[in-house]
C-alpha cells in the first residue's frame, strides 16, 4: 500500500475541507473535481489541476461507502488505453478486444466511455491526474503492456472498480482478466519437439511485462521436458534491429539451433527482428530453420507465410473483462478463468534438418 501524507495535528483520513484549503478553492469545487464533475459545470483547467495536486499531496481518498452511493447509477463503463494512440484501427491488435468489450457491455446494459489520456504523448506516458477522469464512469477497463503503477494504485486504494485486461499480479487489489500464455507457449514448443527440434531459442523483448514472463515460463517448461539445455535458450532484445542480426542467427544455427521462437507484443518488435535476421542470413524457412510466433503477427505482415504459433481470442478477453467489472460493481465475487489460446499450425515450422 502507498504511504499517506499527513497534516500536523490531524489524524485519520484527510477531508475535502483540507484539500480545499491547500488548493485555495471552495469545498464545493473540490467535490465537483473529485466527483468527476458529472454536473458538467465549467471549471478552469488550472483549478482542476490544483485540486488534484492537493488531493495527491494529502493522500486524500474519498470514503468508499459514499462513493458507492454516488456512483453505479450511470451505467457507464470506461475504457482507458496506456498506448500512444487509442487502438481503434481495425488492424490494431487491441481492436478485437474492444469488439468484445462493446458486445458484452451492450448485452449488460452499459454504455462505454473511451478515455484517451495517453494519446497525446509517447507510449507509457500518462499525464499526472489523467486516470482520475475515469471516475466519471462506474468502473473502468485498462489496456496496455506498461502501466503507471502509482496512478492506478490510487484508484485501487479507493475501491474504484478497475479491471486490467492482461495479468497484473504486481499491483495488489487490482482485478484482471488474462490469457493462458503458459499453456499456449508450451504447446508450440511441444509441436516443434514433435518435428524433431531439440535446440530452440526464444527471442523476446527486454522488459518484464507479465505476458512476456508467462510466455517464457511456458517455453522453458516445455523445453525442460525435452531434457535438453535451456540455460541460454532465451534472448532478450533491447535494441530493435541491432541485437538479432543475420550474423547472430548464422552463429546460433552453427551451434545446432534448428528453431527460433519469438513473442508477440504490441509492436511486434521481436518477431520483426527475427524475420529480418533470418532473411538476411539467407536461410530457407522451414527447410533450413523453423520459426514460430507466440501470438499473432502484426497486421502489416499478414501477407507473409502464416507463422506457426497460436491465436489469442481477444474478443473473448474483452467480454471477460466486462463480466469482471460488472461483477465488481454488483459487489459480487469476481473470478474469470484464464482465456485459452488456439494452436495455429502455420507454415513456418517443419521437420528439423536431417529428419524426414
Automatic annotation (TrEMBL):
Q: Does the keyword Repressor apply?
A: yes
Give the HTH lacI-type domain ranges: 14-71
Q: Which superkingdom is the protein from? A: Bacteria
Recorded GO terms, molecular function? DNA-binding transcription factor activity; transcription cis-regulatory region binding
Descriptive protein name: Transcriptional regulator, LacI family
Q: Which Gene3D superfamilies match?
A: 3.40.50.2300, lambda repressor-like DNA-binding domains
Keyword flag Transmembrane helix: no
Q: Origin organism of this chain?
A: Saccharopolyspora shandongensis
Keyword annotations from UniProtKB, A to Z: DNA-binding, Repressor, Transcription, Transcription regulation
One Pfam family, please name it: Peripla_BP_3
Amino acid at each position: 500500500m502507498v504511504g499517506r501524507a499527513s497534516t500536523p495535528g490531524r489524524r485519520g483520513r484527510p477531508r475535502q475541507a483540507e484539500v480545499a484549503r491547500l488548493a485555495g478553492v471552495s469545498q464545493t469545487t473540490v467535490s465537483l473535481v473529485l466527483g468527476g464533475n458529472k454536473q458538467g459545470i465549467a471549471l478552469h483547467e488550472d483549478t482542476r489541476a490544483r485540486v488534484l495536486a492537493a488531493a495527491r499531496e494529502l493522500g486524500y481518498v474519498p470514503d468508499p461507502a459514499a462513493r458507492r452511493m454516488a456512483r453505479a447509477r450511470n451505467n457507464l463503463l470506461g475504457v482507458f488505453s496506456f498506448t500512444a494512440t487509442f487502438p481503434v484501427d481495425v488492424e490494431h491488435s487491441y481492436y478485437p478486444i474492444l469488439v468484445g468489450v462493446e458486445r458484452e457491455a451492450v448485452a449488460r446494459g452499459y454504455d462505454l466511455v473511451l478515455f484517451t489520456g495517453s494519446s497525446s504523448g509517447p507510449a507509457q506516458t500518462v499525464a499526472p491526474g489523467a486516470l482520475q477522469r475515469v471516475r466519471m464512469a462506474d468502473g473502468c477497463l485498462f489496456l496496455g503492456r506498461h502501466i503507471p503503477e502509482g496512478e492506478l494504485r490510487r484508484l485501487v486504494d479507493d475501491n474504484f472498480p478497475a479491471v486490467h485486461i492482461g495479468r497484473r499480479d504486481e499491483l495488489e487489489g487490482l482485478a484482471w482478466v488474462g490469457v493462458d500464455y503458459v499453456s499456449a507457449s508450451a504447446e508450440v514448443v511441444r509441436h516443434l519437439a514433435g518435428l524433431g527440434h531439440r535446440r530452440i531459442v526464444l527471442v523476446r523483448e527486454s522488459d518484464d511485462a507479465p505476458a512476456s514472463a508467462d510466455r517464457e515460463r511456458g517455453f522453458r517448461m516445455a523445453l525442460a521436458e525435452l531434457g535438453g539445455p535451456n540455460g541460454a535458450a532465451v534472448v532478450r532484445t533491447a535494441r530493435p534491429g541491432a541485437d538479432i542480426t543475420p550474423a547472430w542467427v548464422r552463429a546460433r544455427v552453427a551451434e545446432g539451433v534448428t528453431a527460433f521462437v519469438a513473442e508477440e507484443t504490441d509492436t511486434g518488435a521481436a518477431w520483426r527482428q527475427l524475420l529480418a535476421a533470418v532473411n538476411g542470413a539467407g536461410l530457407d524457412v522451414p527447410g533450413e530453420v523453423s520459426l514460430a510466433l507466440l501470438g499473432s503477427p502484426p497486421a502489416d505482415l499478414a501477407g507473409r507465410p502464416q507463422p506457426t504459433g497460436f491465436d489469442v481470442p481477444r474478443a473473448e478477453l474483452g467480454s471477460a473483462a466486462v463480466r469482471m467489472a460488472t461483477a465488481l460493481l454488483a459487489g459480487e465475487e469476481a473470478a474469470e478463468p484464464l482465456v485459452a489460446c488456439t494452436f495455429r499450425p502455420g507454415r513456418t515450422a517443419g521437420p528439423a534438418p536431417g529428419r524426414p
